[in-house]
């Protein structure tokens, strides 16, 4: 037991669902705090004893090693707990234990709805909560004649992802990798936290704001923020994208000084070639 944390990630990058460039900022911060990360590593077996655990691992270069530690945390996702409760007898279609849903999250059995981690959607509390609102509004419409929900399903590109590490990482919409893979015309704007006065003054200068936008119109396609307060500040860009505001609209809006949100304004200015503090 060497006193060093050894996170093991099977895929090739830290936080594989997030923007690669932003994830590298998190990785750098972890390494600087004495955490040694192993990507492309496959855990083969673990032996647990009264004094700790020993994990046999195949590293990315094919070599074998054993990590010993006082505690072992295994995080490999979640599985639905729908087996054996009779959903199929109701005529509810399932995929690998997940309930298939249509508009307003109604299952294939009329009048039966499903939300949350047993459905095929991001397993996030805020997604389940919003889906629940849509279901409630739809049921009220059917039974009481209330107005229909404004939307029948959540647009996946409007779902914010939030990673509560230090530094925080938050994102939504298209990542640079996904934009390239889909052939979507895009440009990238960036602004470093070191250019944000409040980030420097409060001792959290590591991070960046990264925005994907269409080169012709300035429409915001997605964003990734890594740094202090990222899980809060991401919503300004998400709202701007949802409201079909452009890079110029956000860049021209007065932001209070000193705030971390100035980084969003500056990133938008950078995308327009008008960044001030860089």
Shape: flat
> Unreliable segments (pLDDT under 50, ≥5 consecutive)?
none
The tally of strands reads 12
CATH class categorisation of the largest domain: Alpha Beta
Helix content bin:
25-40%
User: What's the CATH topology label of the largest domain?
Assistant: Enolase-like, domain 1
Keywords:
20% strand, 5-stranded antiparallel β-sheet, FAD/NAD(P)-binding domain, flat, single chain, 27% helix, 12 strands, 278 residues
Model description:
The structure is a single chain. With 278 residues, this protein is of the alpha+beta class. A hairpin with a 2-residue loop joins strand 6 (94-95) and strand 7. Helices cover 27% and strands 20% of the residues. It has helices at residues 20-32, 125-144, 176-182, 197-201, 230-242, 247-252, 262-271; strands at residues 8-9, 38-39, 42-49, 52-58, 64-69, 94-95, 98-99, 161-163, 169-173, 187-192, 208-213, 220-226. The strands form four sheets. Strands 8-9-12-11-10 form a five-stranded antiparallel beta sheet, with helices on both faces. Strands 3-4-5 form a three-stranded antiparallel beta sheet, with no helix packed on it. Strands 1-2 form a two-stranded parallel sheet. It has three domains: 8-69, 3-Layer(bba) Sandwich (FAD/NAD(P)-binding domain), CATH 3.50.50.60; 88-144, no CATH class; 157-271, 2-Layer Sandwich (Enolase-like, domain 1), CATH 3.30.390.
